[in-house]
Amino acid sequence: MMRFYPFHVGDYQAHTSHLNDVEDLAYRRMLDLYYLGESALPNDAQWIARRIRMPAAIQEVKQILSEYFQAAEDGLQHNKRCDAEISSYQRMKTGGAKGAATKWANKRGNEQGDGEGIKGGNGEGTLTPIATKNQEPRTRERRATRLPADWEPSDQLIEFMKKERPDLTPRTTVMRFMNYWQAKAGRDATKLDWDKTFMSWVLNEKQGQASIKPQQTNPFAGAL
């Protein structure tokens, strides 16, 4: 059953502009009947009128048959455009069915094998891996993320900071790092590796961030 056919509006209007509303509707429904059955119409206006749900339009059906259809040797009323579209559709359908049959036949043959294929045969077959273009298995790419709210440096990062930047105060540096990145917006606020980002931050942090306790003085010194 042909459930779709190309409908060229311009061509249709050019050839049917003289039809009245009943004739136009009858013609459209006759085309649908033609395509759905994938067959020419019988030379029976009354039967056609009943099938297109227009039993009172027998005369209009006869007029359409005489104008747009031709009786052939098989006794049916043919429309050249319809026959061409149906023939094209059937070739495509047959070709698709053959292609699918070939595909599944090849797949079944590969599954059965001869003992040297993927599986089947005498049970001695082995699975042959399919290599990627670079001969390495594909891995999911990492995606950049924002700094997690619960992020904190590992012991190794703290030791790195103490070794590379003994002038920095760990607690202050970590707070500055987290406050900056968690408040930052836009694409630049995402990173692939936050530990390495922190290491770069430590190395680039300004000098003089170490905690230097001011000398405690007694405001009352010398008053006594």
Give the fraction of residues assigned to helices: 40-55%
Oligomer: single chain
Kindly report how far apart the N and C termini lie.
114 Å
How many beta-strand runs?
3
How does this model look, in words?
By secondary structure, this protein is mainly alpha-helical. Among the domains are: 9-83, no CATH class; 155-204, no CATH class. It has 8 helices and 3 strands. It has helices at 9-16, 21-37, 45-51, 58-68, 80-112, 155-164, 170-183, 194-204; strands at residues 41-42, 70-71, 76-78. Strands 1-3-2 form a 3-stranded antiparallel beta sheet. 13% of the residues are buried. Mean pLDDT is 80; it is low at 115-121 and 210-217.
Write the layout of secondary structure elements.
Blueprint: H1 9-16, H2 21-37, E1 41-42, H3 45-51, H4 58-68, E2 70-71, E3 76-78, H5 80-112, H6 155-164, H7 170-183, H8 194-204
Antiparallel strand pairs: 1-3, 2-3
Helix pairs in contact: 2-4, 3-4, 6-8
